[in-house]
Every structure is written in structure tokens, then in C-alpha cells.
Design goal:
47% of the residues lie in helices and 13% in strands. By secondary structure, the chain is of the alpha/beta class. The strands form 2 sheets. The chain has an 8-stranded mixed beta sheet. An 8-stranded parallel beta barrel has the order 9-10-11-12-13-14-15-16, surrounded by 5 helices. Bound molecules: phosphoenolpyruvate and magnesium ion (MG).
Amino acid sequence: MTTVAGLPTARGFACGPVFVYRGDGEIPIPEYVIEPGREEEELVRLRRAKLETKRDLENLIAILRERTGRADVRVFECHLMILEDASLAEETERYIKVDRLNAEAAVRKTANGARMQFERMNDPYFRERVRDLDDIERRILKALTGFATSPHLELKTPSIIIADDLTPSETVQLPREFVLGFATNGGSTTSHVALLARALAIPAVTGLGDITSRVKPGEFVLLDGTNGAITLNPDRATIRDFSDLVERQIELTEAVTMGAPTGTLKSGGEVRIFANVHPGVPLAGIREQGARGIGLYRSEYLWLIRGMEPTEEEQFVAYRDAAKFAATLSEGGSITIRVLDIGGDKLVRGISSKEANPFLGNRSIRYLLSHRDVFRTQIRAILRASAYGKILMLYPMVSCVEELRECAVAVAEVKASLERDGIPFDHGMRVGAMIEVPSAALIADDLAKHVDFFSIGTNDLIQYTMAADRGNESVAYLYQPTNPAVLRLMRMTIDAARRNGILVGVCGESAADPIVGILWAAMGVNILSMSSTYIPLISKILARLTKDDLDEYAKVPDSMPACSTAADVFAACHTFLLGKIPNLDDILI
Ligand code: PEP
Ligand code: MG
């Protein structure tokens, strides 16, 4: 028996035979210089191949819409965008017209150039888009060369798919009913296979190194997407224990789908549980997982996906559609659209400027206040969309009162212009401030006078409080949500919200931590917003606690002796919850 560790990518457990997927194999690409005068002919070949690719994609989108809802379609809409990208098309045609390359070579050269640009980007999400580029390049080359797809994945029995990596089209074209889980050599938690696996509730482990060469087709394996591991040649006892986990996992999801609304406490009352989403990632799954609304819409992904500023119309359509979707989640489900949170590790070429310290630089609301035209365009798109659903607008990285005053001026200006133009919008649209910089937590009482709600971004609040880069493994030991310094800032923010009669939520990843997220709720947070896959788990825990339990739980950190550490606080919290829920560790499987 061997257990191979990888990245826990999509929660859940699966056991079954392995299907080793090797993809379509390399497409042979002819490369030559065309005869002078034949450029037009070659351009026609290229345009025909692109047209065929477009038709194929549109067909695929139509089939998927029917089969899986809109969730997976976004990926292919993104492919269509790449296919129709004017600058890529111009570059390919230039290789044919000027360098007299054949169409296949021109496509490959353009794709190689774009791949290099994508790979150089700092943003991991954007680096993952290389897979989209590979996918679309492959389709055009197939159309040009007539290279037949190898016999399509013939899955006849439920299996665990093991692959080097999976492109978005490979992932979604797999017959869902036969896919028990995914395990890949490469990939990351932001890869498409990760996003789709979570959206489709299929357990997945990525980053397993050379797993494809360690398993034999048909071999029986155990896949643990919750902890990120795959077990080869499991012994009988391990299989028995694992089967229990599979059963319990099923129970967990069923109880949530069929029971009371997510976030309901044992004693009645509730903590509202919302989902974090971003454009380009499937939305449909969040309903099944019990999201009551969208607590964080990361609008900057509209910029990251396009690599430039989206137009007001593009933004309006995206916000309106997301707001309409949110309205279907629960009665009057709302969406909190966060305005452009660019900078730090989210850089867009041509927009982000080079800074010595990007995390402490002209990012987020600072960027918007120094680029008023960009800010006003976004506010206008959001306000226009507010006529179609309940939208709240959120300002990221607020660090002082002056910023909120300036935001209010910008909003008033845009509202006046919409009124002049007779365009409908929600006149009472609520605005909120993210609390993710220590200064904001310290002056939360003052900030509360200028907004309708707070949303605490613990991902950044922890990094700025501890001066520990949230993406740097070597300082990860400092990155602790239960550090007493972080807890004090949380307490200040929650108390200030309560004193000023405004709502407070947490939208950082810590909201989905079963020990810490519940602590925030106990301390008085009204909304926990998280990756939707974690909603059933957090709900399951809340359903076993009463309001009195939560009140007691909130006091646990305060009852700690002076000088306690993050680990002490965490251990005390864990022990407290175990006292209330004896089988807690089984739920946390
Ligand atoms: C946060 O900082 O907690 C947050 C939700 O924002 P982001 O992760 O997008 O920086
Ligand atoms: Mg943040």
C-alpha cells in the first residue's frame, strides 16, 4: 500500500478503478514557407479553420448548456474570446503575409508568443489561462490538419480519472456519471480542472507529480480530495475505513440539501452563508451547495481575463447576469460586487505600473481614486445593473476615512449623471468597506459612519497584521487567523459594526475554516462568505450548535491566559467545539 500526497483540490472521497487518460497525443504540425503569391490562399485556409473551430465551440456550448447548466459554459465562452481576439488574429495573419509561414506554423508561433506572456504573469489565475490557449490552439490545428481526434475517452464504468493534466474541454466532455474523481500530475488549486471539479462536486487531487506512471489502468485506488492524497494498493482495513468516509460524505451532503436552509442553528436563528465567486468561474454549483447569496464578486477577474479594461457595457452585462442569478438563490438573494481590487499579486499588463512594493502600493481603492474615469465607469455599470437585482457595492483595501468620503463623491456624481440620462438604478444601493488593513480595523467606528456594512477580508488582514506575505510558504507559520493580534482587530471591527448598527461579514478564506469561521460567527459576524464547496461543511457544524453555545464559544479566546499563542487559541477552540460536538472530527474528515 502506498499513499501519494498532492494538493487537496476539491473535497470529497472516491474509490474505484483507475482510468489513465493520455489525451489526444501530439498533433503533427507541418512547417514550411509558402510560395510568393499564395498568401491569400493560406489566409483563407486559416479563416476557414477558425470558422470551423467557432462552430464546434458554439455547438459544444449549446450541448453543455443543455446538459450541465451554464456552469461549464463560461470556460468555452472564454475560449471563443481567445479565438476572436483581434490582436492574436492580426499577429497570425502577419506571419502568413509578411513571413510567408504556412497557417499551422503561424498559429503555433502566435500561441507560443502568447503562452510566454501568460507564463510570465505573476497572477496564478492568469498563468492557468495557458491551458485555455493550449486548448484553442489544438482545436484550430486539428481543423487545419484534419487530424482526427483519437477515439474519445471511452469510459464504460465509473472510474477515477488519472491524467497528466486535463484541459477544460477534456474535463467537461467526460461523462459525469462515470467520473468518480480526478487525480492529476500537474495542476493547482486555481486550475480549470480544480474549478470544474468543485463546481461539479467531484473529488480531486492535483500536483501528484508522476502519478500517471505509478498506476496501472484498472487498478483499484482510494482518492481523498479533502486531504489531498491517493492510495495505491490499499489493504482491506484501509478500504473498509475509507468506505465509511465515502458513506459519511454522502450523508453530509444529503443532510444539507434536504434539511433547513444553510447556516441554521440547532436552537433556531442563523448565520447567513454566502458564496465567493469571480467572473469566468462557474456559478451554477453554488445553488446546490446552499449559498443564500453572493457575498463577494471579485470584479477584477473581468480585467484579468481580458488583459485590459472591460467596457462599461461588458461590465454591465456581467454584473446584471450575476445579480439575476443571485436573486434565484434565495428569496431576494443579493450580490456584493467588489470594485476593482487590482494590484498586489493581481497585475494586469498595461494597467498595473511597476512598484517596488506592490502589496503596499497604489492598489485597489487607491488605484480607483487615482483613476477616476475607470472608477466612474465601473460605478456606472454596477448602478445600471442594480435595476435588475439586489446589488451591494464593496470598496477593497480601505485604510482611512478620506477614501470613503471620496468614494461617496464619485457615487453621487455617477448617480446624478444616470438620473440626467433617465437610466434606472437602485437609488438606495448599499455600499460597504472591506476591513483588510489594520488601520481600518482600528478606526472601524469612524468608517462605520460612512458605509452600510463591513466585509472583513481576513486573507489580507492577516498578512498586513503579521507582515507575512499570504503567498510565501517560508513565513506561513506567521499566517495564523487565531493570533491574538488578529483576534483583537476582528473584535474591534465586529464591535464597531454592532455599535453603529451595520452588518458585518467575513469573506476571507478563514470563513470556511470549521474552527475559525464558527468563531467569527460566535463573535458576532452576521455573514460568512466562502468558496461554495465549504458551505455544507460549515452548515453541518452550525446545525449542531445553539445560540448559547456560540455565546460561550466567543469567550474562549478571552479566557486564555496572557501571552497565549495562535496555536494555544486554536487548540482551545477545537477542544471547546469537541465538547459540544463529540463527533466533530468525523464531520471534519
Ligand atoms: C481577503 O483579503 O480576505 C479577500 C477576500 O480578498 P482577496 O482574497 O481577493 O484579496
Ligand atoms: Mg483582499
